[in-house]
Amino acid sequence: MLTDNTQMFERDDFGADLDDQAILEASKFDVNQVTLKISKVVEMSELNIQKLFEIFNQYKFVILECNPLPNPKENLLALEKIFGSIKKSKRSEVDGIIPVENLHNSSLAKTNVSTTNTIHLMHTDGSAEIDPPKIVALQCEIPSHNGGLSQIICAESIYEYLRKNHFQELQVLFINPLTVTRVEQTASRPIFVEQEGKISITFRTIRKDHVSIEIPSQIKKVYNIINNYVNNPKNQLIFKLKAHQILILDNTGVLHGRTSFPENEFRKLNKLWFDGISEYSHRLQLGFMSKFK
Ligand SMILES: O=C(O)CCC(=O)C(=O)O
Ligand SMILES: [Fe+2]
User: Fold this and answer.
1) Distance between CA atoms of 249 and 111, rounded to whole angstroms?
2) β-strands 177-182, 211-214 pairing
3) How far is the CA of 151 from the centre of ligand 1 (A)?
4) Cβ distance 97 to 270 under 8 Å?
5) Residue 196 region by backbone torsions, left for phi larger than 0, else alpha for psi between -120 and 50, else beta
6) Which ligand 1 atom is nearest residue 115's CA?
7) Nearest CA to ligand 1 atom 8
8) What is the DSSP pairing of strand 35-37 with strand 61-65?
9) The domain 4-154+232-283 belongs to what CATH superfamily?
10) Which residue's CA lies nearest to atom 9 of ligand 1?
C-alpha cells in the first residue's frame, strides 16, 4: 500500500501526466458549495460576510469569486480587514504578497517547490516558522490549462481516520514534535496540538527539497501513515482554481497541495498570509473540536 501511493505521487513528480479529468471525478467534490460570488472584497455586504464565515467554518476553506479588476491584488490585500494582519514570509514582496509561479531554473526554484511546476505535496504553510499563519489566501491570476489542480484535506478527517484505525499512534502524535527546517528557519511542534478543546494541525510531506523534517522515532510509523493517507487523491477534495478566484484556507484546519503542470505553461497565483486577528475574529472558527472532552 505504501508503495502504491508513493508511485502515485512520484509519477506526477516527473511531469503533468496524471489525467485531470480522472482525478477530478475520483474526488467527486462539488466546488460550487464552497464558492461565494461577490463583486469586490471592499464592497462585501454583511450578508456575504456572513455567508463567507458559514462556508469557511463548515469546510475550513472557501473560494471567493470576484469580478475582474485592473489590479486584482486589491481584492487579495483587502482581505486583511476580515482575516487579520498580513504576515510576511521570507519571499514576500513589499505589500506582503508572495508570488507563486514557475521560475524554471532560477536559484529560488531550486529551494522552493512553490515556484516550480512540480507537484506540491500536502502541507500546511509556514511549518518552519515559529508562528505560522492562521489563514492562507491563494489568488489565481492565470490558471494552467492542464494540471495545477488544488488539493485539500481536512485535519479533522485525518484525525478521524487515525482515531478509528490507529488509535495508539494518534495519542503519541500530540506529544512528540516534528522539527521542520528551511534555510535558516526552524520550528518544532507536534503534528496535532490541542488548546482549550480545539485541535490544530501542522504538517509537511517529506520530499527531496530544501526543507528538512526531523521525525522522532516514536512517530515515524504514524508519520508515514499520515503521509500516505493525505497524498492519496481518493482522500482529497480536488478542484481547479479559476482566474479571479481566491482560495482562503484555515492553515490550522486543512492541508493543501497542488498537482503538477506542464513546464511550458504559464500559471500565476498570488499568495498572502494572515494572522487571524481582526474585528471579525470572534466569528472565525479555526481548527476543530476535540471529541474527547
Ligand atoms: O500553487 C498552488 O496552487 C499552491 C501553492 C502553495 O501551496 C504554496 O505556495 O504554499
Ligand atoms: Fe502552501
Assistant:
1) 24
2) antiparallel
3) 10
4) yes
5) left
6) 9
7) 114
8) parallel
9) Clavaminate synthase-like (3.60.130.10)
10) 114
Q: Which atom of ligand 1 is nearest to the CA of 100?
A: 9
Give the cell for residue 232: 492519496
- What is the percent of the chain where pLDDT is above 90? 80
Closest residue (by CA) to atom 5 of ligand 1?
114
Q: Atom 3 (ligand 1): residue with closest C-alpha? A: 258
Residues 69-84: tens digit of each pLDDT: 999 999 999 999 999 9
CA distance 84 to 271: 15
Report the predicted TM-score, pTM, of the whole model to 2 decimal places.
0.93
Beta strands in the chain (DSSP E): 35-37, 61-65, 86-87, 98-101, 120-123, 135-142, 150-154, 177-182, 185-190, 192-195, 198-201, 211-214, 237-239, 245-250, 254-258, 268-274, 288-289
Rounded Cα gap, residues 42 and 81, in angstroms: 9
Residue with cell 469569486: 65
Q: Which residues of the chain are under the pLDDT cut of 50?
A: 1-17, 293
Q: Please choose from 139, 153, 256, 272 the residue to mutate so as to test ligand 1's pocket, defined by most ligand atoms within 8 A of CB.
A: 256
Q: Across the chain, what does the average pLDDT equal?
A: 90
**What does the domain layout of the chain look like in residue ranges?**
4-154+232-283
